[in-house]
Amino acid sequence: MNYQTFQPHSDLESLVSCYWTLEIPAEYSSERQRIIPDGCIEMAFILGDDIKRYTSDDEFILQPRAMVLGQTIEPFFIEPTGYVNTFAIRFYPYGFANFVTTPIKDLANKETPIEFLFEKNSAKELEQKIIDAKDSKQRIEIIENFLLEKMNDKATIDTIVKQTLDALLLSKGTESITTILKDDLSKRRQLERNFKKQIGVSPKQLGKVIRLQTALKLLLNKKSDNLTKVAYESEYFDQAHFTKDFKEFTGINPKEFLGNENMALSTLFYK
DNA sequence: ACGGCGCTTGTCGGACCATT
DNA sequence: AATGGTCCGACAAGCGCCGT
C-alpha cells in the first residue's frame, strides 16, 4: 500500500487541504472500508479498477471514475474490486464552492460525476488528461491549472460563513452558533441559508463533525488512555455523550473501533 | 435578497442505570 | 471504579413563510 499527500500551490492553499494518492496492488487490496465523515469535500479520480460503494448491507453502486464526493454526515462503506489507484483533491469545507455554481448542498452524501459540475467538454478533457498523465506531479499541475482557471469567474465565499467556519475550526467544533454570532444575531437566518449552500451542511452539523474528528485524532494518535479522558479533552459533556456522537458518525462505538476495525485507512487519513 | 416570526425538530446537560 | 448506555426537560438550531 502506498499513500502519499502533496501540498497545494500557494494560491490554492486556503482552499485545498492537500492532494493525495493511494495505490494498492490487487493481491493486497482489502475488504470493505468504513469511511467516516471528516468535513472535507473530495474530488477523486479512479485510475485503477472500479470501487464499490455500499448503499445498504448487500447492495452497492460502482463509483463514477471522475467524481466529487460532497459533505457526508454519516459513515459509509467502500470496497475495491481489484487494483486500487486513486488520485484525489481534498478541499476544505468551504473550498469547493469557489469552483462551481452548483449549490454544494446538492452534492452532500453522494458522488457526483464531474461532468455534471463543469461544462461537459472541459470535464471530459480534464478526466482524460488526468488519466494520461505519467505521474502525480503532472496530475497536480493539470488540476491546479484547471482550478486556477475556474477561480477567475468565481463566486466567492460569504464573509459571515467564513467567520463562522473559522470560529468552528478554532474552537474545534465546540462553540455554539449563537455564541459565534453574538451581536450579529440578525444574521442568523442568512447564515443558515448561505452556510448550507456553500458548505453543504448546516453550521451545527459541521461543528459536530469537527468535534468528532478532534476526538478521533486523539484516539488514533495518542493511542489514547481511556475514553472518558478523550471525551473531556474534546469537550464533550461526558463520556456518554461522546459515545453517542461517535456512533452517529462512525456507525460503531469507540471500543469496537479501537478493537477489531481494520483501521489502516482511517489512520492514514487522520494524521 | 434580507431580516424577522414562530412553529417544529434536534441537541445537550444532567440524572441515572447495567455490565464488567 | 470505569465504561457504555438510556431518558427527560430546557434550550438551541432548523426551517417555512411572510413583509420589506
TrEMBL record:
Keywords: DNA-binding, Transcription, Transcription regulation. PANTHER family: HTH-TYPE TRANSCRIPTIONAL ACTIVATOR RHAS (PTHR46796:SF13), HTH-TYPE TRANSCRIPTIONAL ACTIVATOR RHAS-RELATED (PTHR46796). InterPro entries: AraC_XylS_family_regulators, DUF6597, Homeodomain-like_sf, HTH_AraC. GO terms for molecular function: DNA-binding transcription factor activity; sequence-specific DNA binding. Gene3D superfamilies: Homeodomain-like. It comes from Maribacter hydrothermalis. Pfam families: DUF6597, HTH_18. This is AraC family transcriptional regulator. The keyword Transcription applies. Residues 188-260 form the HTH araC/xylS-type domain. The keyword Transcription regulation applies.
